[in-house]
Fold this protein.
Amino acid sequence: MNIDLNSDLGESLGAWRMGDDAAMLSLVSSANVACGFHAGDPAGILRTLRQAKERGVAIGAHVAYRDLVGFGRRNMDVESADLRADVIYQIGALKGLATAAGTTVRYVKPHGALYNTIAHDERQARDVIAAIREIDASLVLVALAGSPLLGWARDAGLRAVAEAFADRAYTPNGTLVSRREPGAVLHDAEEVAARMLRLASEGVVTAIDGSSVRIEAESVCVHGDSPGAVEMARRVRALLEQSGVAIRSFVDAA
């Protein structure tokens, strides 16, 4: 068995520090790197890319709505032409920085509100899919496990990878519990590790009401900006490897 561990990185902005990229890059197999629209500045992004290159971590473009103030977590009704151009622009910027760092962008994982919106909003989803195809059709799209987006992307000729979240609670129907609800974000590293071992070995997680829900995923995200994120990722990786689950990026398994 093998599974990918990913984290959202490159999100520091100027004097404001977000997460511990260096530590996370020693634990994950894929890095979703901010492109400047919701977080990240060029110097910090370049530093993260160079660290990822040193550790052999796969690079993904963490594209987002143009929303620095809201950290990309505010819903936006962006016109199709603007959304497509914004996604192309972000991927292109990260590709340039990645070239300077001696590495390449291998996949795209939308961030925050954009990620959640295109999981079910077909119009915006097809705009993002079209943008990826226009700039580089070989890029893999990472999307919420069980969402219609996976099918839309595959129908358009993109490889799509289903993703689960280590530190987020699930509803009984397999969707993420809203961050506005109590218990939406999990903080117990031991609990999270045990949940991810069950996901990797059985394809099942325990929902917020205690029921079991089937989640088919090739990649697991540990949010880099969560309190205790590094320790959580360390515990998840350790338990998976102790149980015979190899940590391997989905782009290396293509």
Q: What stands out?
A: The mean pLDDT is 94.
